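Much of the work behind modern protein science is quiet bookkeeping, done one molecule at a time. Below is the pair of lines this work produces for a single protein:

***
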Amino acid sequence: MKRSLLALATLLSISAVPAVSHAEDNPLSFNVSLTTDYRYRGISQTRLKPALQGGADYALPGGFYVGTWASTIKWIKDFGGDASVEWDLYGGYKGEIQKDLGYDVGVLSYVYPSNALNPSANTTEIYGAMTFGPATLKYSHSVTNLFGFIDSKNSGYVDLSASFDVGGGVTLAPHLGYQKVAKNSSFSYTDYSLTASKDWFGMTFSAALIGADTKSIAGVKAYASPANGKDLGRGGLVLAVKKTF
């Protein structure tokens, strides 16, 4: 496959845009985490290997927020580039229509410094989400090419997730998503996850079953790593620990 198509083989959640607290007494927060695999939209960004991650969020008055987040990655180098870090920049507005019915709109840019891929892997999306009780439905729309795919502007990702307190301080979060890659339909796919998390000793520990139903092209998985041939969307268990302060 051409490098330009392989570049998107890294469509990455265990993480989307980090949740932002709007507490007026503490508008600035930081987070750092260690995970056994950085999965984004079901696809490993680290060749199924561990990643170090961290970010900062600032809650502005009136529901506005800005933030940044970064993670170590491997896929850019695997596809011929030279970036070893993903750096995200985002901002938006959260509000509530009525009790238990809220919304979130914003813009998110994924930056891969010196990625040297053509087309560039740098991607910008606008997003909108509605939350009703424990459930959230979110749509993200790319206003640039998507993670290096040729002519893939206007790709879209639909994300349905929820969060349930199941007792004992454990939260269970199911997720189902669909990534449409514009004009590159062989790379469109469905992803899923089920995450259990618990706060303990001031940190959040989580375990997630994550995978993606990706297609095969000429007998090879569309999101196979060029480094070792492994399917980057195969189902697996991802463990993580996160500290917010």
Remarks:
- The chain has one domain: 3-244.
- Residues 1-19 have pLDDT under 50 and may be disordered.
